[in-house]
Task: structure prediction
Amino acid sequence: MSNAPREAPAPWPAHAGQRLAAFRAFLAAQGGPALPAQEAEALDAFSLAEADAFWRALWAFTDLPGDPGARDRSSDGTMAGTRFFPDGRVNFTEALLRGPADALAILARDETGAETRLTRGGLRDAVASLATQLAEGGFGPGDRLCALTPNRPEAVVAALATAALGGTFASCSPDFAPRAVLDRFAPLKPKALLVSDGSRYKGRALPLGETAAELKAALNPALALSYAVLGGGLEGFTPLREPTAGAGASWHAADRGALDPLYVLFSSGTTGAPKGIIHGTAGPLLQHVKEHQLHCDMGLGDRLLYYTTCGWMMWNWLVSALASGATIGLYDGAPDANGSGEEDAFLSFAREGAFTHLGTSPAYLTRLAQLGDGDPLPALRVLLSTGAPLPGWAWAFAKQRFGNVPLCSISGGTDLLGCFALGHPERPLKAGALQGPGLAMAMDFAFDDGDDQAGELVCRAPFPSQPLGLVDDPTGDRLRATYFPDDPNLWRHGDYGYWTEDGGGVVLLGRADAVLNRGGVRMGTAEFYGPLEALPSLADCLIVDRPAGDDLELILFVVPAPGLTFDAALEREIRTTLRTQASPRHTPDRILPVTAIPRTRSGKRVELAVRDRLRGRAPKNLGALEAPEAIEALATHPGLS
Result:
């Protein structure tokens, strides 16, 4: 990573987003406020003070098929009990499928370079075919379809066909262990199960025959469907029907209630049983068109590629970009597989697919920085990152590597199927910070523990994509205990951070429940990872604390860069880096070399699971991790004795 500059670049100046400007003009034309152009504060203030008017105007501006209904919201008097557009109807499938039949809807590629293209007409034909096949099998409103599938067009088709019939869709990535998949799917009692015959990752073919048989036996679905990735069928499963060209032209998806359950997403499951989080139909769609169009300046002719799997909420976010007229890119496989020339397969896809919006992660940017220089992507307009706090050096590296395009870190989560903070075309972008809260999102930081420097991310007002409930929680008690544990009018999100000095930007430091404590001083994990991820001598790291006498000791696990060994010189470099770039308090008590850091399938470090194991508690749901054996290797490290 020697080519990664550590000096923060000058702020990117604010630039007027075309879609945001069009929304301002729309508000004024509809009799709303005439908000000054490019004054972010005025629009932000309107969206918070007149939230009902904002969301209703957004529905009309994006021309979502359906009707928001007479009431803006229903409520029991609390944020926890508030729901938006309770009388509304929306055609989710039509919102994503509409547009010229010959316009490109999906551009998909796997790590081998095999590519699939689907126009909007072709996607409509495929959705109509599967919806018909499901309906003939008795699938209808209120039923659930669970899919174990790679990130391929068939997954998008299944989600839209399920929505078209009034059903609820849930998915997992095939790299989840069978037990982890069952932990998620079994409580849903699915009417239909879709499983691919396998997947490919890092050059290996991974058949799913045994897993499919186990799932079918345990779930006993009325419909068991499959499609081929590796070229074989699944015994006891019915293949997806081949679409008939033109079949979608006269086919119509059904309208749905705005509060009908559309998706079930799952919490990571690394600190307890994974929660099934039920999301409605209109709320997430409104949230996504707001984020795509107003915050990311995305519209007709744009192309969005985000590295994700079907086990992560970013997949749902990516799919919704179809509603803004964009082409979506689906990449299946390892991002670092061999691509064209010096580039990996994912970056080759981004370049050759002419994607205007590219979604990455801190881990991916770290790996790119280790590889050295490369050519900019000519079509790229916006670079996005999520999954973890972005280290400060990444903004400088991204400007050097990709040119003068804004790097927008976004943060939200599975819980709200959207973002609390993200990019904003009318705000300057400063290295180390997210540009600001999402429009109409009353996010804040709660300083309720005596720490006036940083606090827990909270939300102080309702928003449309609040979850409808949790699976197996008929009274809503678990939902309220999870998100409103001490105040029904205060959503507690669990992230830890603070506002920038000018009050507009957001700095996130990691999960609040993973915050480290030394001598009563609280430190976010991102305060460690930022400086360390800029070291070319380190490939990965993880910081945790554990009890030691009357205090807690800090333990840093590190993976040296390929070709290097952990020695006294590397240890000195690590300690000096943390002492000078963070503070003397950030210097660990122990620095221990390991071969791998445990992460979730979406690339997030699992400090809590490691901390539990160090405290003698067994971490749960190891099947949700990329390398679960790494937890035991860390917990039994000889350097801990």
Notes: Residues 1-7 have pLDDT under 50 and may be disordered. The first strand starts at residue 66 and ends at 67. The CA atoms of residues 180 and 623 lie 5 Å apart. Residues 120-136 form the longest helix (17 residues).
